[in-house]
Amino acid sequence: ARLWIIKVVIRLICAPFYYVRFADFFLGDQFMSISYIFTVIEILICAELYNFKNMEYKCNSSTSWFISIVTVVPGWIRFLQCLRRYYNTHRFNPHLLNAGKYMVGIISILLGTVAKVKGKYCHLYLRVIWIISLVATSSYSYTWDVLMDWGFFQKNSKNKFLRDDLIFPTWSYYYVMISNLFLRTIWLFTVSPNYWGVIKNGNIVAYVTALVEVFRRFQWNFFRMENEHTNNCGDFRAVKEMPLPYNIENNSEDDD
């Protein structure tokens, strides 16, 4: 398993040069949700340099360009993977549309970093553009989750707002649609003044937001894998029951 993960990570790093398989972009999506863990590296290095003294003032991660770069890397890898898949398939939908989703996310991260670095000197119009980009990212990503990754809102489906082939209990699909919407908009806390007066420490907000994203990805994985499996069964790349191309009639009488 470790060797397999190492191989996939190498394929992620060399995203444009390898044919992208399901495992490649699936693991890439996992890294999208744990990018906060990578940002802690800078804090640890800074804390070590200052002997863990006055970290709040000397190791302020909220105004660091390094944090922005590290956070952007997983999205950039997924963007390159989408371009590679378009190169192999020449399909605008879904590959270039998916690439657009990650590019919008990258832009929102960079705009957010500029706004935080400038702080009170940041112009109002820049903050407005940043918030608009966050709304666009959340809307784009949520729509993609529901329509493409999970395959919901299938036309003429026997399950309202869902799809025909379901493995989990029906109520769980409606739950994940609603919960995913709220979890996708958790960023509202990070752009609100004084975090709505609930939490004063920005590091706590960042930590809680990261935990929420990990939970969102955790439940996303189940329905993404389920949709992939049912699609594979539909295309006969995996098997539930293989239908025969002809009917079999049971004859109770002997031919003799």
UniProtKB/TrEMBL annotation:
GO terms for biological process: cellular response to phosphate starvation; phosphate ion transport. Residues 58-256 form the EXS domain. It is a multi-pass membrane protein. InterPro entries: EXS_C. GO terms for cellular component: Golgi apparatus; plasma membrane. It is found in: Membrane. One of its GO terms (molecular function) is inositol hexakisphosphate binding. Keywords: Membrane, Transmembrane, Transmembrane helix. Its main location: membrane. The chain crosses the membrane at residues 31-50, 62-79, 99-117, 124-142, 172-191. This is EXS-domain-containing protein. It comes from Neocallimastix californiae.
